[in-house]
Records
---
Amino acid sequence: MGLGPFLLLASLEGLVQAAVLSLSALGLCLVFGVLRVVNVAHGEFHMVGAVIAWSVSHVLFGHPLLGFLVALFVAPLLVGLIAFTADRVILRKINHNPEATIVATIGMLYVIQQSVLIGFGPDARAMEPPFYFHINFPWFGYSGYKLSVILMAAALLLMVWHVLSRTRLGLIMRATQLDREMAQVFGIPVGWVYGLVFAAGAMLAALGAVLMAPIRQVHYLMGLDPLLMSFIVVIIGGLGSIRGALLAALVIGMSDGIISMFFSPTLAKMISTLLVALVLIFKPEGLFGLRKS
Amino acid sequence: MENSRKSSLVLHIGVLALLFLLSFILSDYHQLTITRIMVLAIFALGYNILFGYVGLLSLGHAMFFACGLYAAGLPVYYLGWEVPSAFLFAIVISAFSATLIGAIALRTQGVAFMIVTLMFSQVAYLATLYFSDITGGDEGLVLPEHARSFAILGMQVDLTSPQTRYYITLGLLSASVLIVYRWVNGGPGREWVAVRENELRTRMLGYNTFLIKLKAMVISGTLSGGAGATYGLLFAYIGSTFASIQYSIDVLLFTLLGGAGTVLGPILGSFIMFYMIDFFSGYTTAYLLATGVVLILLIVYFPLGVLGTLRKKWRLWLP
Amino acid sequence: MEALVAVSLLSTKKLNRRFGGVVAVKDIDFSLEQGEIRGIIGPNGAGKTTFVNLLSGRLASDSGQIVFRGVDITGQPAWKRARLGIAYTFQITSIYPGLTVFENVAIGAQMRSHQSSKSRPWTDWKTNLEEIVGSCLRMTGLDWSRTRLAAELAYGHQRLLEIAVNLAVDPVLFILDEPTQGLSVDEIREFTDLLRRIRSDRTIILIEHNLPFVMNLADRVTVMDQGGILAENDPKGIQVDARVKAAYLGE
């Protein structure tokens, strides 16, 4: 395979990665933007989404597509419910204090992860893709499902974009983000909005996980990687900026695929983590500077 | 106030004396367990200076622990250094890295500080894996035979004896407790608490708050590194597990549980948590569930921890 | 020229500060004499708080120069200026609510160990610290509350405590940002007495909305408007100044 086809393959892999990453990062970004808290358990919501997807497709007999479609609804719904409950029961009690929330969500991370370990077991399991077909390029064949992941993720992102910018719900969320007290004065039930946004963030992570489950194996520790990657994306994109995060997800998702072909994954992670920490220290507004002040 | 100060000093010395007396009745196995706990308690004591007194929540203190661990263990393993010189070397290196990391990380505060320390620590952890040719990575390295004993002041010290390890650790813990006790009751402690309670006010009174925080970070990192060095040298093993996030979270948990901002709190927390995890891991491999549950319960219901709650409830005077 | 430097405790030359497009402080030339009480008044948004923040170092100036006791302090951070003797009390009381009143003042008193002799033995210093705290608490009339938590004090007492904490540092210049805000008439009277006691060996800048209070205390009054100095005179002169009236009453 020449360099051209090789790069094409790498960018396709990168696009798939970027597609799922942007969903997950958007969730983290939304929660940070509106609640002003960092959800360390975000990756676990991703993991639970994948586990539910696997379980649904495992329980439902018949065509794997059926299981996949059901999972596409059930997984985010259940994960959203868990997240909403967690927000009402735990985070509301500490008033969403930013520092305490990090500690509490670390606790949630352990609780979720270890509960799945007890219920699901320590083994990695494969989920059957909803359909098989290969698109044949002149140089290599490529999984049609992976291509459809890119399209599905793009469609979901458009939906979220629409909800945020064009609907009343989006307006309420933005109002809460801008000024919590003012929103309260105008009769917006801020507590509920917080719960819903926290749930929505988790649901986005779960959606990404359902798309990803047939490609990657499902495992109780699989949440750590998306957590780290989402962190990187949100920080590089400028904390809380949705456009910045999407752009960063695209750039990082793409480059991650290419970089990992040249560097060892450990070294790549090491360098990227260090660089992102330095961005957070010296340029907290992010690299894509889309956010004003 | 003078009276309560005296009785609190008696309390601290009493706890240390109790640990000394325990050594006479404990079996070898329990001595070993408590030795481990006391090493972790030194780690937590160091962590607490930054978190409990200065109010800076680090999520990456495992990097300091691991720094001491490797700085002590590697020279022993590769260069055949003696135990005392390796220990001193580890202290110096820990202080140096804490200064460097503090100078960079302290440009942030609050949530950003938490994330930045978490990330730095993760980089350190990944480095121990990446350079596994040297560090032994996950499997770690077992220190050679010559490091199992050393001579100091004409005495031969045998590190394979549980009693010896117990007394060495207790000695180090006692020294740490008494130094920290003196600091938090004196000038440094007043400045730390001033930064914690109102940094702007403190700066506007003429204090260089950045320097105060940096000094505290160096003390905190050095104690943590000292604990790491002790662990590596006493148990003759160094491995990257000690650099993992898990250790950073554990030390936070010990401190929160016992009571942040009290000298004895982190020690108490280390004991309770160690035995609790020991208990749970007898039943399930998912013993980290306990860590998660305790963390949530503490932060929601008992943010002051055991000793912090007691101090507030009865207005006890505890440093 | 030399004589001017000798009497002027603090002076600024062409001091500027903007926030985005808004000019908050514009080309201010200001001079303060040792030992005076200076009132700074002006309508809301005149730039008073910004101006004193530039003096205390809480904000950095965009351009211009600040000289304090003959030293150019323009580029110095707030804590260094505080060590040179500039104390600042916030418009919104800023103390250590979680600590006892004694500890609050002790933090201020401990500052002196940084300022002065390093040769002082520690034991001596400890008794000294108690003495300083004691005298500051007596001066502000808070001696009774030593062991109380600062958060438990009434609002007026918290304001006094902030003064006590700053007094313990032994400052040369006291900048008080709206000290009477939220105080009752009786409390203001006590506060006036306190300031008269403090002033014996100190210089005070007083930002105030309470005009009778300022006119009663100040030796001179500076009126600010739209980021600049509109007028400067003794209280009587200010009261009859037509420009000042116009600024307050709106042309």
Note: Confidence is low (pLDDT under 50) at residues 1-5 of chain C.
---
Amino acid sequence: MALPAVLVFVGFGIVPLLGVLALSFANWNGIGAITAAGGRNWVAVLKDPSLPHAVWVTFLIMVLSWAVQTPISLLLGVFIAGHQRYREALAVLYFLPLLLSSAAIAIAYKSLLDPNFGLGAGLGIPLLSQNWLGEGKLAIGVVVYIVSWQFIPFHSLIYQGGVRQIPRSMYEAAEIDGAGRMRQLFSITIPQLKYTIITSSTLMTVGSLTFFDLIFILTAGGPGNATRTLALDMYIRGFQADLMGPASVIAVLLVLVGLGLALLLRRLGGGSASESQMEGA
Amino acid sequence: MTAPVTRAPAGPTTQPRSGPSRRRGRLARANWIGGAAGWLWLLVVMIPIYWIVITSFKTQANYFATNPLKPPTAPTLANYRLVLDNDFVRYFVNSVIVVVGAVVPAVLISFMAAFAIVRGGQGRLLKAISSMFLMGLAIPLQATIIPVYLIIIKLHLYDSLVAIILPSIAFAIPLSVLVLSNFIRDVPGELFESMRLDGASEWGTLWYLAFPLTRPALVTVTIYNGLGIWNGFLLPLILTQSPDKRTLPLALWSFQGQYSVNVPAVLASVVLTTLPILLLYVVGRRQLVSGLSAGFSK
């Protein structure tokens, strides 16, 4: 019964995974014949000074967006786990960004942030009418902001589910012992959410490796190479410069980083306990 | 709700509010920080959305001339007409075909695989299959796009909707199998045994026992995959080229390239492509939200 799923997954998941490794040792322009290249692609890519930069940008966006999203998602998750009417009403609106595609979000924000015709300019607030996408540091900040805007709803939903599974009796006991709200948050809620935090962080960080559509539409990697992440680098090398070999090298690196991250986060979760949690992601 | 933050870190010393709320214990204490932060986040979420919607009803001249947060005095539908005149109905149909064509088989075969893994999970082969899917979760599958492109070319499927559908199914399988097998595991084993004793086949227990009992999980994975594929950009971008094969996100992008100066029209296209999902959200919000949270924080 598992056969159809196995066939499709092997055909379009595992075979491409091996294929990308094979192609990293090949010359291919995307149309013509594929020829062996030996280790040349690897040498070329690893020597390319733009690689450390792409790795750095990817890392920066990953860490910053994790650092912004995690506390906000956690607190919002706690907030909407409450059963008050107004919180449930707010939660309805919180999820709206989840419905928009990355393409739609990127396009809308691109207009919104336009230094001459965007929201900031229209309101006449100089602070808001900077050249957001025209300056490297600002552009990275904008990417992190939009990523957070888009994905915090999803992660707060995960945290909401986690919070609702914490036994109420723990809070009641804490209450009797006189623990305040902050104390409860740090001594009960957050420790109890350990596995939820790991699940959510895994999804965030592994997911951030493949932010493609958002950055592609928003900045196309610019200004200069300021937001050229590994995923974008792979696309530009492969499908714009027609160098599928070097692009495959980048892809292999992406796969390795993703696997490494997932393993690392599993370790952090502590042995077998996290394994069962991974299975219950 | 807009109480100054300085008053907020009250914790246990916050005055319990009067009357009925006191009974509710912990929740009775007004949580001003939480409340203020909640409303603040609402602003963060809603201001861009509000701006997108009102701007999409402005004329281009009006857009440049007026306060961007003021609703248009004379709303116009011209932007929406322009978007529709640009073949959006076709792109919409393409998107529907891709989503239905990918999600239905993806969920069904994932369900069958999850059932096999749970029911026969002791076998070595099924264990290997299960860990293969688990590994698939940790791999950014988009990184395999170049060989996928090659395979699609070799299968002579390039520039067709099927080209988008096949990898979409494959990419959806790991997470679907994971969520579904968690739910099937919760079905008490005795139910399967007694049904088997009554003469039902494994296949019968799959359809008549496991399927109905795991409906919430099926809804979850359907919605989750459906949203992801509806909004997908990379696969259509790489695996198709003709305008008549575009799905909505790709169409949005090329529309934006074409009309970038006409901000209201671009925003109308954003609203229009989101509208079908928004309608589904209005109709099935409870299913969607509770499904997603049940599926992921189990």
Note: The longest helix of chain A spans residues 50-81.
